[in-house]
Amino acid sequence: CDTRASLYGQYPFPVGVALRTNKLYPGSPYQELAAGQFNSVTPEYEFKPDALHPAPAAYEWAAADALADFCRQHNQRLHGHTLIWHQALPRWITEFAGSQAEWDALLKDHIQTVCRHFRGQVSSWDVVNEAFEADGTLRSTIWLRHLGSGYLEKAFRYAHEADPDALLFYNDYDLESNPVKRRAVLSWLQAMRQRGVPVHGLGLQLHISIRHPENSQLTEAVQAARQTGLRLHFSEVDVAINPLNQAVEPTPELLQRQADKLRFLVGLYQQLPRAQQHGITFWGVADPDSWIRSYFHRADYPLLFDDNYQPKPAYCTLVRP
Ligand code: XIL
């Protein structure tokens, strides 16, 4: 197939991609696919605390603003990622030796400065990312250790105060494959809502593989998440071909299994009520851009376009719904 049709044009909900500012050279295949195929963007790195907030009183907006400009030029929605996380922290925060009140002030300053800066450009935020462990307990992050479990609720309230129009999300991984973690996250979200905390959506990252999880597990997870009534974002989708520690080449058979897996996932998403569909976001444009290669140091082919930025069976399947 070719890329004359746009992927987002095939669906009634936004279809997004994670982008890096430093790869957006005008005329490059990366730039052209980013602008032509997707109508929502999640910053892959530029909005993380170590990129935006390098020193206590210093914010660095240039790369993030360039990405926001790109979205404006191409009429793309900008989904902010991420205000609070245990990773991508600047060193000064990891070494911050403040009292509880000073940690609270730091949490508030970071969230509100960033939300205010992008007010009107960012329409939704991942406020907290990956706060739960696999066993359903809260992860012992720097925020939890200094502020207790109340930091979660505070993060959402501070974000809402700074930008009352933005939709606020909790985002996490393995919710599709780990029912223990999923139940913990869903009941925490329920409790937040009952207490009137401004949380509007749940991001299921969905870093999955052609082998795992089974389609029946995906169905079960999406059904359970749907019951919350929250907006759902399939927020960081990729479908790995290789198991950990292995790196086989992508055969036509494997690429077809990848396409089938994605087709199934998108089919599930299409069954959600429109009001709950925040969109589906792919975690990168083409295979060379995937975080899996750099982060796990293994060859893999998890995205919609190949090493030459040509459409793969996964793309072709999705562009013909
Ligand atoms: C990853 C980026 O893709 C990498 O470029 C970066 O080095 C590390 O972070 N879950 C998340 C994302 O929520 O922010 C991560 O992104 C991938 C896992």
TrEMBL record:
Residues 1-321 form the GH10 domain. This is Beta-xylanase. The keyword Flavoprotein does not apply. Its EC number is 3.2.1.8. Keywords: Carbohydrate metabolism, Glycosidase, Hydrolase, Polysaccharide degradation, Signal, Xylan degradation. It holds the Pfam family Glyco_hydro_10. The keyword Hydrolase applies. GO terms for biological process: xylan catabolic process. Belongs to the glycosyl hydrolase 10 (cellulase F) family. It catalyses: Endohydrolysis of (1->4)-beta-D-xylosidic linkages in xylans. GO terms for molecular function: endo-1,4-beta-xylanase activity. It comes from the Bacteria. InterPro entries: GH (IPR017853), GH10 (IPR044846), GH10_dom (IPR001000).
